[in-house]
Amino acid sequence: MTSGRRSVDGMLPLTPAVLHILLALADGDLHGYAVAQRVASASDGQVRMGPGTLYGSIQRMTDSALVEETTGRHRQEGAERRRYYRLTPFGRRVLERELERLAAVVDAARRRQLLPMPDSA
Amino acid sequence: MSDHPRPSRFARLLARCYPRELRESYAEDIARFIDDQRRDPDRRGALSGVGLAAALCADALGSLLDAVLHRRPPQRRAPVRWGPALPPLPPEPLVETLLQDIRFAGRTFVRRPGFTAVALLTLCLGIGANSAIFTLVNAVLIRPLPFVHPEQLVVIWGMSGGQRQLLSIPDVEGMRTRARVFQEIGLMRTQSVNLTGTEQPDRLIGSFVTAETLHLLGARPALGRLFTPDETAPGRGQPVAVLSYGTWKTRFGGRPDVLGRTLLLNGRPHQVIGVTAAGLLDSYQSDVWIPITSAPNPAWFTRPGTTVWALGRLKPGFTPADGEHDLQAIATDLARTYPAPGGNPRIAVIDLHEAITGGSRFMLIVLFGAVGAVLLIVCVNIANLQLARATTRDREMSLRAALGAGRGRLIRQVLTESLLLSLTGGALGLLLGRWALAVLVASMPGGLPITAPLTLDGSTVLFSVAVAVVTGVLFGAPAAWHGARAGLQDALRGGSGDRGRARRLDLRNVLVASELALCIVLLASAGLFTRSLVALQRARTGFDPAHVLTAEFRLPSVKYDDSVKVINFMSAALERLRAVPGVQSAALVDAVPLSGNYGTIAYVPAGEPRPAPADAPSAGINLVTDGYFRTLGIPLLAGRDIALTDNLASEPVIVVNQAFADRVWPGQPAVGRSVLLLGPPDIMARVVGVVGTTTQLTLSETPTPQIFAPKLQGGGIFASVVVRGTGAPEAMTRGLQQAIWSVDRDQPVWKIRSLESLVERDLSPARFTVGLIGAFAGLALLLGIVGVYGVMSFVVTQRTREVGIRMALGAEAGQVIRLMLRRGMVVVGVAIVLGVAGALAAGRYLESRLYSVGGADPATMIAVPIILGTAALAACWFPARRAARVSPAVTLRTE
To answer: What is the ipTM metric for this complex?
Structure first.
């Protein structure tokens, strides 16, 4: 997958579902339902993903190489075969760029005093 | 999270709701996700089973929408079915093909705005008219009455000479106490009641009842209480009253202190003990409920009498016929003890719903039939348009078939298009129906028994959707059938086969012929009703209704307790009325023609043996003062008018109408003869004059013999005023009221209306029906003509090449036109034969409701085919002429 600077910017901005999935996978590989759980807990239950939303997004993210299925990291309990997903290097760059972009937006909002400063400031 | 080897069957089933694109890669994962979610302890509290299902539904719908919006190019292509015996294709998922078909159909319609607009417009008209009429039919005929066990409720009438008649209170009481199959019987009589002691004398609609009646009607008190059986029992009645909810709100401001208040009703004090709850009783339009024992006239409690009707509740399991049998036996027994002059009435027990709606059932069914026929015509028209289009789609269909679409798939595609069209049309139709219903309600004649407000409710919506679906299938079926027959050969040949076209044309011709036949049936029915209405409008009423104002009043019997007081009031009132400026003549009468008031009396011509009471003939009886015939413009044919001098002191005299004279003394002078009027008491009266015959109850009645007796001789506390002026009758309203009030300022006067309005009221149901059926027939004619034109245009286009060759070979324009017309005229001819046969059948059904027009009225049965034939000929002529005008060279070149 070619991953120049230009194609990273071409992915932005991310839809909320994609952003949340990327965030959830940033800590490590997860299977589908674990992604949904992680997203729910990270957003204090604000974002609840159904299977359609989740796999629809994962399908599109796989097509644009943001995530990939892991190979060899299946848990082998019984006949269970779950697919695990992980961030590609390209996906990680897209996530970082998106977070930088969002941070810039938040900064701008703070400078215009639309948002309170963080406690440390 | 517990890991199970395989997702549950339930989860796998749910996963099938997701779009194919997703399932191809993730079916197993989605199912596992659903299982995880169900077992997840964190979510169990937050989402119950129902919540989870709802969330899943929303999720699946979102995915479907997503898949439709971002459909990726298909990755698999259906195998081409060229060779022999390929394995069958896997079944396609229903939801997706449906979505696909809908999108495709939508695009097709957008591409053909003309067709779509015409189809939607006609569907909208057809379905809209159906929803409106259905609402009416549902409200009147289908919806059960809002009572507990309405099927047990019956009305009890007397029947005499085919006419409904009231019964006497003692007779009904006798039946009530002895009846075996009734749970309860209540008495009822509705009559105007004078309310005095308030600022202005007023008239209320009073219902004289027994406690049982209110119980039968399901009345509940909103305030206070209702009657106890003791309070309404003959001989023990109490002067109490129950107000209707509406009266309490409007006349007494809804104040609770109305309880215990004393009202002067018909001059007698009545204590208000309760107010009925709003709802059930509203349709009875009664202002106040009064015990039957407060009857305005003590004669109500004597035999024979025509004072009350009764309401009954049958014991469970008994039919009205059982009830009738039961009561008739009692009545026959009573009649042996108390024979009535003119015969004791037969007892009729009628289902309450039937009694309320029976009168309008026929017209509603006719209207429903007419509107249904219009919808059928709409179906045929759109089916024809679709068929014409199907012909141009042959290649598309063949190609689809060649690419592997099964027959079912092709039919489904075409039907989806039809249904999309009909459901859209139905939705528009419902909007139109709402409006149409408002117009209908506004123009409806009074007297339609509506027990609930007319609104487009759930059942109407359900009905309209059902109609839309049936319509869609009906008009889609021919095209679908055609599409499914599209053969592979046609596609390969690159053109459409001629054999197929001939058959298709036959189908179209059959459709058009049936459509035109339906048109004829509708037009003929409309024609019959119109001719009947015209005859009714020309019907001889026998009086001149112009410039006449009428009104009614009833003197309180407490205040006017002897006939001298009554007669003094009447004479004084008459004198004052004649003095009102602008009044040319005035009179008092018991029953103004067409007002609904009517009385009969049994009589024996003098010199004839007195027959058994039951066999005595009867005639209409009306009490009038002098000047009545002049005021109404009724001609005096012989003898003299009733005079002021015909009073209590003078010899009893009567005037009879020509119908009476013709019946009793055919061909002989009537003046000077005497007639014994059977009472009690019997009175021998001398005929002093003969007047022209008038209609009394309805315009359509056959002339009835009538006797007019002097009002000032017979008394009676009820009277109607008739005054004739020169200008608009309403201008005399104030003068009329003042004249009565100048005699007694407490005397209410009501029903102040012109005689013309009474004639109009009698005509209005007929007008309403004629207007509606006429509109439906007009619509049908328009649609039929459009249908013929469409088919002919299609034929002409299809045969352009043939015509070109014929003309190139020397055919004249006239010959070409004749050639083209011939086919159209055969279709029209067949339609006329079928249509007239149908119209004659319809005429037989309608005959009983037609006035002086037969069901097979020749004028209608000849005129309608001529009108339709001419219109159809014109519709054929224009396309035919177009064919003949085209230059042969151009025609040939285009092919």
So the answer is: 0.84
